[in-house]
């Protein structure tokens, strides 16, 4: 699903750090309307939050992410939803949209937070919590961390979400330079941070073009 993006930014981060990917423990966060996190050790993905479908893992704009599986049976039995209705609820009517009861677009939800809307605040808290929990579990998978990367619509553009996520990871030794974060600089960790933290624009089109070239053996 977001594999192309995770691969692109994990390679770029090593270019910027001047380090060999084979020596690096990297967590890439593709946070847009769809969202996923990947743990990359020595250039190989060892865990990622999406599953058989993009529904798994993080809470997203309109996807639920991971939920108690018994909720599906409850909706089938109690609400008499068909399989198609169930799929629509989970994929198109959940996530930020359902919790905020406003929008799947984070900008709308953040605006509502500024107006003191409690459901919007709950949606943002849940969204941030799930991202931070996933990063924390991947730090244990990787036995530490060299670089954390934020990419995609929210990862690249929302200083607030990056700040709230990293704040929850202070206890694991990650911390931000708030000014660099606000300015959207490439490196946004502070001098105490145990790992580099970067904002990197993704470029899935370039990766696809390069893969196509390789497959066609032009390169
Ligand atoms: P994507 O799917 O990668 O295009 O990302 C779309 C998401 O990025 C939407 O939820 C937008 O609200 C969010 N987004 C884009 N720009 C900003 C911004 N400046 N601040 C907060 N969220 C943003």
Mean pLDDT: 96
The helix fraction, in percent, is: 40-55%
* Count of DSSP strands: 5
| End-to-end separation | 25 Å
Hetero ligands: adenosine monophosphate
Give a verbal description of the structure.
Helix content is 49%, strand content 13%. Helix 1 packs across helix 10 (204-215) and helix 6 (118-142) crosses helix 8. The protein has 219 residues and is an alpha/beta fold. It is globular. It starts with a helix and ends with a helix. The structure holds adenosine monophosphate. Adenosine monophosphate is lined by residues 32-33, 61, 105-107, 152-154, 157-158.
How would you briefly describe this protein structure?
By secondary structure, this protein is an alpha/beta fold. It has helices spanning 3-17, 70-77, 83-92, 95-100, 106-114, 118-142, 152-157, 159-168, 178-183, 204-215, and strands at 25-31, 35-41, 44-48, 147-151, 196-199.
In terms of topology, how is this protein built?
Layout: H1 3-17, E1 25-31, E2 35-41, E3 44-48, H2 70-77, H3 83-92, H4 95-100, H5 106-114, H6 118-142, E4 147-151, H7 152-157, H8 159-168, H9 178-183, E5 196-199, H10 204-215
Parallel strand pairs: 1-4, 4-5
Antiparallel strand pairs: 1-2, 2-3
The protein binds adenosine monophosphate.
